[in-house]
Amino acid sequence: MPTDLTAQTLLLEGTDAIAFAQAQFTSDVQSLDVGRWQFGAWLDAQGRVLALFQLARIADDALLLLLRGGDASSMAQSLQRFVFRSKVKLRVPEPCALATGPAHETYAVHREGDAYVFGCGGHSMIVGATEADDAWRLPQVRAGWPWLPNDALGNLLPPALSLERLQAVAFDKGCYPGQEIVARLHYRGGHKRHMHCVVLSQPIRGGTVLHHKGNSNIQLLDVAGDDATFEALAVIDDGLVDSLQNASDIDTDENIALRVVQSWTA
Predict the structure, then answer these.
(1) Residue 241 vs residues 11, 166, 191: alpha-carbon distances, Å
(2) Does the pLDDT of residue 266 top 90, yes or no?
(3) d(Cα 256, Cα 148) in Å, to the nearest integer?
(4) Lowest-pLDDT range, 15-29, 38-52, 124-138, 237-251?
(5) Torsion, CA 266, CA 163, CA 137, CA 153, rounded to 10
(6) Which end of the chain is more exposed for a tag (fewer CB within 10 A), N or C?
(7) Percent of the chain's residues with pLDDT above 90
């Protein structure tokens, strides 16, 4: 199970910050009002997810990205290659504590002192808390909000993470890296891996790849739970899930059982 509770963030600031993000990320950044956040992703040219984040507009000319996995400094260095003459500055704050706060409206964001509070409905995420905790993990696993382990970065396409359901992908805003692949998958379909919420028979590290009959069919993402129950988001081959028919349990070669409790296949 994951133990890193630090918040990796990236700031985009300047008169061209919104336009730069609009041209690089999958979501419709220009439609985002100040004080609101949205899910977004940055893809490679093959449409694979290099970074997944919650993107908040904290001022007319400033965006704050809360990375859901990955390293902010590495992302900033990679993005810097595309700045050219744009009036945008990429800044990486020091990693800070990430904690759970009281209920706030989903997609609302506001500042409290040095911290930013991301509303998530029944709870909030405090970026820059005085002390970290992970109580936010389980409700987000159950909601299908993925947090990506390092070995999943650059390996998954948007449909595998249900990014369309999270409104993290715009199909009518023009080009961005991987846009052609995203549009083809949306209009023609055909992707054979999707995300599911599963209950595990025992605790296991997020990012683990599990096998079924010798095939690497199951990529675990975030894992959360307590001493009695362990739940995870997992990307599973459609063929394996379809073979279950009326059952919902998967026995893996690693002797770990998974019970599918929720599926997101669109």
Answers:
(1) 40, 22, 14
(2) no
(3) 21
(4) 237-251
(5) 120
(6) C
(7) 83
Residue 2's pLDDT band (cuts 50, 70, 90): very low
Rounded to two decimals, the pTM is 0.95
d(CA 176, CA 123): 32
| Strand order, beta sheet including 6-7 | 6-7, 96-101, 124-129, 115-119, 109-112
Q: Which two tokens stand for residue 190?
A: 């055909």
Angle at 78 between CA 73 and CA 81, to 5 degrees: 130
Residue 258: CB atoms within 10 Å = 23
Chain centre to alpha carbon of residue 53:
5
Closest CA to 71 of 63, 60, 79, 61: 79
Closest CA to 204 of 182, 219, 187: 219
Residues 81-95 have a mean pLDDT of: 95
Q: Is 78 exposed, middle or buried (0-12, 13-18, 19+ CB in 10 A)?
A: middle
Nearest to 5 by CA among 100, 113, 88: 100
Cβ atoms of 214 and 230 closer than 8 Å: no
**Nearest of 29, 39, 32, 42 to residue 77 by alpha carbon:** 42
Torsion of the alpha carbons at 223, 224, 228 and 229, rounded to the nearest 10: -70
Edge-first strand order for the sheet with 249-251 is: 209-212, 215-225, 230-237, 193-200, 257-264, 249-251
Cβ atoms of 132 and 98 closer than 8 Å: yes
Q: Residue 77 contacts by C-beta under 8 Å, 6 or more apart in sequence?
A: none
What is the pLDDT at residue 247? 65
Show Cβ contacts of residue 168 under 8 Å, excluding neighbours closer than 6 positions. Answer: 26, 27, 38, 39, 40, 41, 52, 158
Asked if residues 206 and 2 have their Cβ atoms less than 8 Å apart, the reply is: yes
